[in-house]
Structure prediction request, 364 residues.
Amino acid sequence: MSPLKIEDGAAQVWFAYDIGQQIDLDRAQQRCAAHAERELIKHERRAPAYLQFRPAPLRIDEPAAAIALGRFATDGRVEATLFDFGAVSIAYRIPLDGHELGELQALAIALDENPLLLDDSRKRVRALIERLGDAVADPQLAGLVEEYTVFHARRWSPPGDPRLLVDAQREPIARVLRAEGGAMRDSEVDDAFETRISYGPDDDLAIDWNGAFLLDARGEDTLAVIEFANVELLEMRFLDDRLDEALDRSHEVLRSRRVRDVRDGMRRIARLQLENALLFESVNNAIKMLGDQFLARVYRLVARRFHLDDWDTSILRKLETLDSIYGKLADAQATRRMELLEWIIIVLILASIVLPFLGLGLAH
Prediction:
């Protein structure tokens, strides 16, 4: 079979960041009105109307200088997608028109933790935070970043069933998915294609942990779901780190003997509990992927590849541990207060007994 050639397509490269506790999307849209619009699931295929982002993220599209990546380059536009739970996804588009599959391997390697794109995306996020101002609650750029690439072909040659085309060239596509420069074992190729889905005879999607390969004349909804899953992974990592920090602080409070330290520590723990629980619920409720619709299955497959369920389990366990520690500290504080109250009562009783005798002695 002739090598797969992309007649019309692009590589979508995303960098996800956490920039604050919450983003007021309405206020952010007012600050960026010239280039901003709400992103909605377009329902390219049959799907219920309720399958939608809640609330709809804000997409900001702006011109930018092209960034060279070997024989490739970004198309001179950058998109920033803002989510109400405090995350932003910076997207670069690299045209692939006229390039054969073999050329994508070099691009995948160049994109893997690319310092130019990483540095540019971080600068753009910092500038965006300044631009948004008070639309971001507690603005602070976290050190974590989550990167993901989708190689999307809207038209390709030779024409035919994309699933058969991909099956015939599994090993080179697997190298693209994993940004691998050398040959791969059959077992690794099989693993790269473990998560795969298609809606009909004219589309195919292979999802790996480092990137995805999509052949679909449409595919905008699929891209939006994958981008959101990448943001969700970033937020799960961010939450996990914050909970580790909260647990470390809890251990310090447990070792402390000073009442003031314990009281202040309990306030911090309670605040972290609330903030982390709210963030966890906001991320998980941002989009409802229910039923057996195609996009719901795409989301579940991406979530499985990203191990989002494992992250959820870890975060819930740490939230429960933090709640247990707070409960024990609260019980210990209550016990100390009861003991102090008992001693005060004992002293008062003793005083009520002794003082009359002291009064008689003074009278004589």
